[in-house]
Amino acid sequence: KPAGNGAGAHANGGPGAETTVQRKRAGSAGVRAAPNVGRRGHWNAYYDQASATYALDKNDPNYDSEDDAPMPSTPVARGRSASLRGEERLAEYKRGAADIVTEYFSSGDATEAIRAFKELRMPALAHNFVKRAISMSLDKAARERELIAVLLCALCGEGLYTESVERGFMMLMESIEDLELDVPAAKTELSVFVARAVADDILPMDFLSKSRVMSKPEAERTPVEDVLAQAHGRLRREGSLASELSSVAEVYAYWGGGESEIARAKRVIAEALAEYIDTSDVAEISMRLQGLRMPHFMHEAVKSALTLAIEKDARIRDLMLELLERLQESGHISTSQMAKGFARMQERTPDLELDVPGAGKQFEALVRAAREAEILPSKRRAERGTDGPVLPASVVAFKARSVDIAREYFSACDTLEAVRCLREAVADAGAAEDLVKLFVKRLVVLALDRGNRERELSALLLSALYDAGVDAPQLRDGYSLLVDAVEDLSLDVPDAVQQLALFLARACVDDVVPPAYVASLATEQDGAAAEVGLAAAGMLRARHGAERVLQAWGGAGAAHASAAHAVSRIDECLAEYASTADVAEASKCLRESQPPFFMHEVVKRALTLAIERRDAKVATMVIDLLAALSESGLVTVNQMAKGFMRVHERVPDLELDVPDAKEAFIALVGVATDRGMVPRSLSAQLDPRGGTAEEASAGESADAADARAAAERASSPPASPPSTKGCVAS
Fold first, then answer.
1. 3-state class of 2 per DSSP?
2. 481 near 440, Cβ under 8 Å?
3. Residue 678 CA to chain centroid, in angstroms?
4. 704 vs 646: CA distance, rounded Å
5. pTM for this structure?
6. Which of 108, 262, 554, 692 has the most crowded CB, counting CB atoms within 10 A?
7. What's the mean pLDDT when you consider all of the chain?
8. Is the distance from CB of 630 to CB of 622 less than 8 angstroms?
9. Nearest alpha-carbon partner for 534 in 546, 519, 544, 554
10. In angstroms, rounded to a whole number, what is the distance separating the alpha carbons of residues 335 and 389?
11. What pLDDT, on the 0 to 100 scale, is given for residue 129?
């Protein structure tokens, strides 16, 4: 209330008086007013006091919580405790920013980095994030600098604003002389960051014209002005439109631009090999490969060199063998990377035969020459175990077969088929207890060389092996082999420790290995093996640890539930189709809900529906639907055949509920064969009554026409290509 007669009455506690709170005017007693105090139209009395510290009420919409740059308002005295709190908050913010950037360098996941940045919840300190992110990237390679440039652009509008970006860059440029002590090219790299920020519209255009740097002679410029001048020169804003566009493109391409890390590495390797063919300078190509800082990707250099050796003449072949020998001797390419490169080339040889006849024989000659030069171990050494003795032929064959089983599983995602193939391989080798652990190691190693999809599939298969009756100690021994080899794996997979820890934590969640095994690794092992155990134990102890582990490889941890959902969706689509007979709607429903490799389940469910309904109309509708799916390309020939084969295997079970299931299935096979959906040779196998040799021969002779028809259907693309995201476990 304003001071007056009424105010005194209330203050004295009279009837109906209101309680008033007496507030001190902190810091105002010792502040001397400026000459304009009290004059009409002037508000500068309190704003011109350089010695005062100001604060706004938190309910004021203009309140700014930043400690080191307060907004002026009512002058208040600030004590030492408030200053300490501000320093603690700043230190905490810087630690959080460093953690976000470090994790972002490893994962490259900008979405996760944005989420973590928002969780800092200190927008007033965002300029420190800009400074810390760029300064950390200066200590790294071009990949990390490109990542930071992309992240800063992505953060605009997500809590990072132009004022913070400007202030962060100014802080960096003011400390450029200190940065140059550790990074001699810091001024050049920072000028690229500034130019990139202007091109990305996260810095305003007038940021480059601060202090009119372009009008000053170079010798008179300060370090800040020198950086701005370099950035201005990179963009050449005063040139023509073509010049401007070319300059911007050069800025974006400076650190690799939109190229992925793998694409950039492949390009550099190809350019280095082409230059080596002209110059034969081993030192130069060694320096360029080392500059990639990707020792785990050197198998690509080996594969590319071998490809050139096969495609070119004998001179190039000798050059490439000499290069590989020198690179291995110098340690730029490890033995495991060399072997992986030769293995990748062996897989590519059949495709190369199409362009280079005799490529297979040339590759065999290269392998022999590499073994003679000790680039590769001799065949006898390659078959030795860890203790030195030559492995039995059955074990060597099992290892090779394990690789084939894993690769086929990664392609088909059929867990039951992979378990069956592994049982056959173990039975053929005749040493069950000693071989399952080798398969576990081989499966996980192959998954580590691939992506999250394959890692999730591997975890599902290991869980399925345990459910199928494989003893837990055998699986645990496989994990032990992996942990023992983690240091070697880290040479090829930089995050091998983290990924193996995830595999172990996932095995605990799936009850494949006991938690005590993980605890023993953390306490009884040392070095990298102990790191794996500690990391896995930490993942399991974390809040919602099991859920996080299940979602670690892209959220496919509930693949079994996804498969059940997919089957339920198929049944819903087929039930609706049986009521409406709308082929177009059913095709659209199935196309939107199913991945292409799971369409054999649609065929199986549709045929089962036709058999169980015992209705000729429904059977005709099912054949019409399958024919439409086949003609549109949504169901391939292989998927159609697989679906019919699955029903063929299930006929005896169906006969328990539908006595005439065999006759109904035979009728469906006959109609499908007549309409070209099933090859005649396959229809003879599908007939449960068995076919004669003449029928099979006739079917094989008629398959040519069926193949032509299938090829015509396959050559016409579907109206709406099916989604290929994800993979549903069988």
1. coil
2. yes
3. 39
4. 24
5. 0.40
6. 108
7. 75
8. no
9. 519
10. 20
11. 94
Contacts (Cβ under 8 Å, ≥6 apart) of 253: none
The CA-CA-CA angle for residues 700, 701, 704, to 5°, reads 90
Tell me if 202 sits within 8 A of 156, measured CB to CB. yes
Q: How far apart are CA 577 and CA 571, in angstroms?
A: 10
- Give, as one character, the DSSP assignment of residue 160: B
- Using CA atoms of 396, 399, 401, 404 in order, give the dihedral in degrees to the nearest 10: -140
DSSP 32-45: PPPTTTT-TT---T
Reported as a single tens digit per residue, the pLDDT across 654-671 is: 888 888 888 888 888 888
Going by C-alpha positions, the residue among 411, 384, 416 that lies closest to residue 399 is 384
Q: Are 277 and 308 in contact (CB under 8 A)?
A: yes
Mean pLDDT is highest, among 201-215, 358-372, 391-405, for 358-372
For the cut 60, the answer to whether the pLDDT of residue 498 exceeds it is: yes
Please report how the helices 415-429 and 432-448 are oriented relative to each other, as an axis angle in degrees rounded to 10.
140
Which pair of tokens denotes residue 591?
């196309």
Separation of alpha carbons 459 and 412, rounded Å: 15
Where does 450-558 have alpha helices with state H? 452-467, 472-484, 486-492, 496-509, 515-524, 527-541, 545-550
pLDDT tens per residue across span 382-405: 444 444 445 677 777 888 888 888
Q: Which one has a higher pLDDT value, 433 or 251?
A: 251
CA end-to-end distance (rounded Å), the chain: 77
Cα-only R_g, the chain: 35
Tens of pLDDT, residues 188-200: 999 999 988 888 8
Contact 606, 640 (CB under 8 A): no
Whole-angstrom distance, CA of residue 392 vs CA of residue 550: 38
- Count, residues in the chain: 730
Please enumerate in sequence order all residues whose Cβ is within 8 A of that of 561, keeping only pairs 6 or more positions apart, or say none.
none
Q: Judging by beta carbons within 10 Å of its beta carbon (0-12, 13-18, 19+), is residue 270 exposed, middle or buried?
A: middle
Answer for the pair 419, 464: CB distance below 8 angstroms, yes or no. Answer: yes
In DSSP terms, 390 is beta-bridged to 384
CA 222-225-228 angle, to 5 degrees, is 155
Sort residue 367 into left (φ over 0), alpha (ψ -120 to 50) or beta.
alpha
